[in-house]
UniProtKB/TrEMBL annotation:
Keywords: Membrane, Transmembrane, Transmembrane helix. It comes from the Eukaryota. This is Transmembrane protein. The chain crosses the membrane at residues 38-60, 97-117, 152-179, 191-216, 237-261, 273-298. It comes from Ilex paraguariensis.
Length: 325
């Protein structure tokens, strides 16, 4: 007579090999392919939204900027005594500036809203796809409804901390620049410049990682998400910075190409707008890809963190079923 016996044994957990930068990019590509339908939908929605904002910005701001430029030229003539002073002109300039700032603020709010949607949707769906669970568009919208506040709060605190660090670093850079100028230390100036760029890349990587943590971990948000991100990134900071550098270079290249093409079409407004929209689509692709890659990087950091947590133990306690005659 055979009976099933539950035997309790200790087995040693073998640490899995850590993925390198290329490994993370390759894993992100595979997960992106698995989750392709949803990611393409998000990409199209985000790109169309930013394209419409670009068109609205062009149509709304161009007349205001043209009018403001004309009034400023007239004001310059007044100061030189070429034409008589007109108070109406001053009021018109103030009105144009206020209207310009108001429109830019509205566009900024809409841009941030689109970014929040795209980040929560992409990171949430990638996080689930990493565990072989593919979400539908409906599931994604439900997740956005429950998670959209955390990345906003986290971004606010991360921005404050980043701004404080950048301000402090700028002061230090200014001091070192004066010292290098006085003592003709050109090498020191270059070292400081390189260090400044490295710090910016590091802050951008940490900022992005904080956003990922705040979205995928329900109990993390604000300062708690920042603390959790720093904890998970220990030993992986360089890898995260390299990943961020790749996306900054890609985004920078797209922006430079767009600017060069637009300058060649200076008097062709609609052609410039078409080039700008093409650049927007390319930047949206880079942004969505960055969200996917940093979600995979989060899994990699979390896996390493959990392995460190059990390091030194004899094994993991598990239940194994075996048959005994």
């Amino acid at each position: 007579m055979e009976k099933q016996v539950l035997q309790e044994k200790f087995i040693t957990k073998e640490p899995q090999a850590s993925l390198g930068t290329l490994g993370i990019l390759w894993a992100a590509l595979r997960i992106g392919t698995r989750n392709g339908k949803l990611l393409v939908s998000i990409m199209i929605y985000v790109s169309i939204s930013f394209s419409l904002l670009t068109i609205v910005r062009h149509l709304a701001l161009t007349p205001i900027l043209t009018d403001l430029s004309s009034k400023l030229t007239s004001l310059d003539h007044m100061t030189r005594g070429i034409i008589e002073t007109d108070e109406t002109l001053n009021r018109g300039i103030i009105k144009d500036v206020v209207l310009l700032l108001l429109l830019q603020s509205v566009i900024l709010v809409f841009s941030c809203s689109i970014l929040v949607f795209s980040s929560v949707a992409t990171i949430s769906s990638t996080y689930e796809a990493y565990t072989a669970k593919v979400l539908t568009l409906k599931d994604t919208f439900l997740m956005i409804r429950g998670r959209w506040t955390r990345p906003i709060i986290t971004s606010f605190y991360a921005t404050l901390l980043s701004f404080s660090m950048i301000t402090l670093f700028s002061i230090l850079v200014g001091v070192f620049s004066v010292i290098s100028y006085v003592f003709s230390l050109i090498l020191l100036n270059r070292v400081v410049a390189i260090f400044e760029v490295a710090c910016y890349i590091y802050l951008a990587a940490v900022f992005m990682f904080c956003v990922v943590v705040s979205i995928v971990e329900a109990d993390s948000g604000g300062l708690k998400a920042i603390h959790r991100a720093r904890e998970l990134m220990k030993g992986k900071t360089l890898k995260g910075s390299v990943l961020m550098l790749i996306f900054l270079l890609a985004s920078g290249t797209v922006s430079i190409i767009s600017l060069v093409l637009m300058r060649k079409r200076e008097k062709q407004g609609w052609v410039r707008l078409a080039i700008q929209i093409s650049g927007v689509w390319a930047l949206c692709l880079a942004k969505i890809s960055m969200f996917v890659v940093f979600t995979v990087f989060y899994h990699e950091c979390r896996k390493s963190h959990e392995e460190v947590g059990v390091e030194g133990e004899e094994g993991l306690y598990v239940a194994i079923h075996s048959g005994e005659a």
